[in-house]
Amino acid sequence: MQQFHRSSPSRHPLQGSAQMTDEQRPSHVSRADYEQDDAVGATRAVSTVGAADRARLRQGIMHVRIDHFHCTMEEMIDPSLHGQSFIVGTGTGRPNEPGRVIDVSPAAARLGLIAGMPLRRAHRIAPRTRFLPASYDLYQPVIQKLKERYRAYSRIIETLPVADAFIDLRACEMQFSSPVILAERLCAEIAELGLMAMIGVANGKSIAELSALMSRKDGRQGVLYIPQGREASFVQTLPLSLLLKLRGGATEQSSSFTEAGEQYEGQNSRPGESDGKGEQLDPVAVAEMVAHLRDFGITSFAQVAALAEEALMRRLGPLGGWVYRVAMGEDDSLVIPDAPPLSQNARVRFNHQADADETCSALRKLADYLSERLQEQRLKGQSIALILWPNHIRRETRKLVMNEDGEEMEVAAAEETIGGQMLLDRHTDESDIIAHHSLMLFAHYHRSGTRYLQVQLRIGDMITTVPTSYYPPPARARSRLTRKL
Fold first, then answer.
1. What ranges make up the beta strands (E) of 38-85?
2. Minimal CA–CA distance to 410: which of 396, 421, 399?
3. Can you tell me the distance from the alpha carbon of 482 to that of 346, in angstroms, rounded to the nearest whole number?
């Protein structure tokens, strides 16, 4: 395995210090006492240097990238797919329906198929290729095992869909002498699950992801470590086309993009998109930037480093400043850990006007579903909210709003929903308790003869059952409030 490192001459901490002569030593202290004090001081100095080295080694970010995760999982489910050309697509995966390619097998990649292209275009390029849907329910046991392995190495984890992650080694509680040893150990553990991992270690997320992309090149065994001070020499050997493969390393501190956006507000640039973890670059904008630089003959990071940062920012906006800093090895992006959500929601839409019995049965299903999600993510909630959509709206509310002239005006609006919330004595994730209190809320707000179009149950005031061990939901379930039961 190749490592980029810089050797520096070691120096004893006490080397070059002046020795005390017999005339300078007090008469009541012997030479042996001074020699003993010097030995103790040397031991303390060496231990201080060792602690500093250990602290320096922990200043790093480990990026884990699972290559061909979907296709590998499909081969585990159906061994007959091994070696064949197939792709995993969104939705039903059929090429005659709208959708995109999620992952391609190595045999399909040799035919020119890539992730992200429309399914219909992939079918035109390789009509004999098999098209499969993603079996996320069968992926979950392996994904949960991966997340548990990640959290065994650090308390600060930033997960990426579906199985990738950034691991901050500053929060690592293991005893290790080098980040390479940790990376090789994690790579071996992932290989035991039947997956192939690419791991890169650097001081920033962007460079760590670039090193992960190169961890299987030139005879390397899946691990590449970039020590501090060697980032620029490493990045400037890479082509700019690697930026198109970045998944999450394009994030930086939001202040960097804010200042650049304020300075070059009038330029034609796309703002960063936010996904709850700070500012993130738009992959479409990154692709346009790479194509724009290619038109001018700039295809490598070394050529970008030879340019002026101000010229790149005038031409490309914040993206230009970011790619210049990466080319110069300046990457101060941090790992933003996953945080528990404020609430968990689930909703049932009826195909007809449901009576009270059907609504109560739906509430029971919602309580079981939310309890399963809370236990899966190691969460507990204390507040329960019920929202009902009745068939006939009977109540009206009046509120004050501001008109165009800045004057208050009264507006009457019909309420489309009814319901309320209840605060429990303690946090819980048990389905029986959630169902019991949700039925109590329904009995309070239900009126005889009322039928409902849909019902929603919400669990709020979330806490984690074990500190710093929040398990985020699967990528397909994020930001989705409904599910067909």
1. 61-66
2. 399
3. 5
0.90 cut: is pTM over it?
no
- 369: amino acid identity, one letter: Y
Structure token pair of residue 423 = 């605060």
CB 349 within 8 A of CB 455: no
Using CB atoms within 10 A of its CB, is residue 201 exposed (0-12), middle (13-18) or buried (19+)?
buried
Long-range contacts of 50-54 (CB under 8 A, 24+ apart): none
Residue with tokens 């320096």: 56
Q: Strands of 230-378 (E only): list them.
A: 273-274, 279-280, 343-354
Residue 366 DSSP label? H
Q: What is the pLDDT of residues 11-33, one digit of tens each?
A: 443 343 334 444 444 444 444 44
Q: Retrieve residue 177's tokens.
A: 């002498």
What would the mean pLDDT of 391-395 be, rounded to a whole number?
A: 66
Q: How far is the C-alpha of 150 from the C-alpha of 146, rounded, in Å?
A: 6
Tell me the CB-side half-sphere exposure of residue 377, using CA atoms within 13 A.
Answer: 27
Instruction: Give the residue ranges of DSSP H helices in 172-317.
Output: 179-192, 205-213, 231-235, 254-263, 283-295, 301-305, 309-316
Q: Given CA atoms 72, 74, 78, 80 in this order, what sign does their dihedral have?
A: negative
Strand, helix or coil at 102?
Answer: strand
Residue 40 has pLDDT above 60, yes or no: no
3-state DSSP assignment of residue 379: strand
d(CA 419, CA 445) in angstroms, rounded, equals: 6
Indicate the residue type of 412: A
User: CB-hemisphere CA count at 13 Å for 97?
Assistant: 10
Rounded CA gap, 161 and 473, in Å? 10
Give 413's pLDDT tier (boundaries 50, 70, 90): low
Q: Which is more confident, 242 or 393?
A: 242
Q: Residue 94 corresponds to which tokens in the numbers above? A: 């059929």
* Amino acid at residue number 303: Q
Q: Which residues pair with 157 in a beta bridge?
A: 167
State how far the alpha carbon of 32 is from the alpha carbons of 22, 45, 343, in Å. Answer: 12, 20, 69
For the stretch 219-235, pLDDT in tens is 788 899 999 889 999 99
d(CA 71, CA 203): 31
C-alpha–C-alpha distance, residues 370 and 345, integer Å: 7
Residue type, 351: N
Query: What is the average pLDDT score of the chain?
Result: 78
Cα–Cα separations (whole angstroms), residue 135 to 72, 98, 140, 173: 12, 18, 9, 35
